[in-house]
């Protein structure tokens, strides 16, 4: 039975390419959240002819949602001939900024040999297209399947997922009595199963000073210098401590098995005005802000992670004249990990062996993805990331996805549907 499904998927190669190109050519940039409605409508128009019932759901009130940039999501569901389990493929529809260094049109979706180039090809519109082809071919091959198939396109994964999967999970769309298996086609390579991800704590630290004329800085107090002391304390104390901590989770790449801290941005002094072309005023800055991105391990407690930074800042306040600070939490994500013997894991592992002739590698992601909301809010612990694409290409210039990789991943997804939904 599998050979005929595989042949059907191979025959859909040109359709897979065209679908991927159509998705990539919609520049669903986040921030700010462009073209979400359009891509949801594209998915609705694509899936409805195969018998899917589609809902378009706006996450009103979610972070980022506005009348100008509404947070739209689509969930498509197709019931089988008899009750059974539901397999859900979830893909995010947003892509990150283009950035510099491209040698191809970021939204041209150019096909060159076996590769499609463009922002979002790898992360993760190629995976979305592969899941659609897998589901359509499975339905055509086995119209009498049991249970249900769902495909969703959700907003804002790149900025936390609160206008997407988190909102849908709060509405009950990922409750275990409605959905039993979730596969997120993130680009973790076609021969690997991603079981989960590290935790993350984002915060903004502000150091405060006193404004004065820049020719007489001794009459003021430079907030940027105070932030320099914070950064030096990070270099001397925090970064060395983080390198000593390592997780037992199979995080890839290897260096991400340590605790990490990224200084996401630093800004001090006057705001930068987009249309202003004059010279800056000679002021001592009275405020400096730094955003930090702390990735922590399942072995670390969140309160200790946060407390470690606050203790460092309090120590500076005690020792450094006129030092003062404020800290604002931006986001918290706890680590998530699906058991290796969970049903979706073992089923996808068997499918990889059938398609690729090898056992999969089991990995965890260095960054988080929407499994966090399915786990914590939906209370569904039978969720993995599996999809085509090379992880290291995500967010990079000249991002691409391989057509053969998408076809192979579609076969793995189709084989998984055979194992879970055929009587």
Highlighted features:
alpha/beta, 24% strand, Aminopeptidase, single chain, 2 domains, 6-stranded mixed β-sheet, 16 strands, Alpha-Beta Plaits, 423 residues, 4-stranded antiparallel β-sheet
Structure in words:
The structure is a single chain. The chain is of the alpha/beta class and 423 residues long. The chain has two domains: 2-197 and 335-421, Aminopeptidase (3-Layer(aba) Sandwich); 199-272 and 279-333, Alpha-Beta Plaits. Helix content is 33%, strand content 24%. It has ten helices and 16 strands. The protein has helices at residues 2-11, 13-24, 36-47, 121-141, 165-170, 223-242, 302-319, 343-356, 371-376, 403-421; strands at 53-58, 72-79, 82-92, 111-112, 115-117, 146-154, 181-184, 192-197, 199-208, 260-268, 287-296, 325-333, 336-337, 361-365, 383-385, 400-402. Strands 1-2-6-3-7-15 form a six-stranded mixed β-sheet. Helix 2 crosses helix 4 and helix 8 packs across helix 10. Belongs to the peptidase M20A family.
């Amino acid at each position: 039975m599998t050979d005929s499904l595989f042949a059907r998927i191979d025959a859909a190669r040109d359709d897979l390419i065209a679908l991927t190109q159509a998705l990539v050519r919609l520049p669903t940039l986040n921030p700010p959240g462009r073209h979400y409605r359009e891509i949801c409508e594209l998915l609705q128009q694509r899936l409805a002819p195969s018998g899917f019932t589609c809902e378009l759901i706006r996450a009103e009130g979610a972070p980022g949602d506005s009348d100008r940039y509404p947070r739209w999501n689509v969930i498509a569901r197709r019931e089988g001939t008899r009750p059974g389990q539901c397999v859900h493929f979830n893909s995010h529809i947003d892509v990150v900024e283009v950035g510099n260094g491209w040698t191809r049109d970021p939204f041209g979706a150019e096909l060159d040999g076996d590769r499609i180039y463009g922002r979002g090809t790898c992360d993760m519109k190629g995976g979305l297209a592969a899941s659609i082809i897998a589901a359509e071919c499975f339905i055509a091959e086995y119209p009498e399947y049991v249970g249900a198939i769902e495909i969703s396109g959700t907003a804002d994964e790149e900025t936390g997922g609160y206008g997407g999967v988190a909102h849908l999970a709060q509405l009950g769309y990922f409750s275990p009595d409605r959905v039993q298996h979730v596969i997120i086609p993130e680009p973790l390579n076609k021969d690997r199963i991603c079981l989960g991800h590290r935790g993350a704590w984002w915060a903004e630290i502000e150091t405060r000073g006193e404004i004065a004329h820049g020719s007489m800085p001794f009459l003021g107090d430079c907030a940027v210098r105070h932030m320099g002391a914070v950064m030096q304390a990070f270099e001397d104390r925090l970064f060395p401590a983080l390198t000593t901590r390592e997780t037992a989770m199979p995080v890839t790449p290897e260096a991400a098995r340590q605790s990490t801290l990224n200084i996401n941005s630093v800004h001090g002094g006057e705001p930068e005005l987009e249309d202003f072309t004059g010279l800056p005023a000679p002021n001592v800055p009275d405020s400096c802000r730094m955003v930090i991105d702390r990735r922590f391990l399942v072995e670390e407690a969140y309160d200790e992670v946060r407390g470690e930074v606050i203790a460092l800042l309090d120590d500076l306040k005690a020792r450094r004249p006129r030092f003062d600070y404020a800290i604002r939490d931006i986001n918290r994500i706890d680590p998530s990990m699906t058991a290796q013997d969970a049903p979706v894991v073992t089923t996808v592992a068997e499918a990889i062996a059938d398609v690729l002739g090898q056992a999969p590698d089991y990995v965890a992601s260095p960054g988080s993805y929407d499994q966090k909301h399915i786990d914590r809010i939906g209370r569904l612990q039978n969720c993995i990331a599996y999809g085509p694409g090379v992880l290291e290409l995500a967010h990079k210039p000249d991002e691409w996805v391989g057509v053969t990789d998408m076809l192979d991943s579609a076969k793995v997804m189709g084989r998984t549907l055979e194992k879970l939904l055929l009587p």
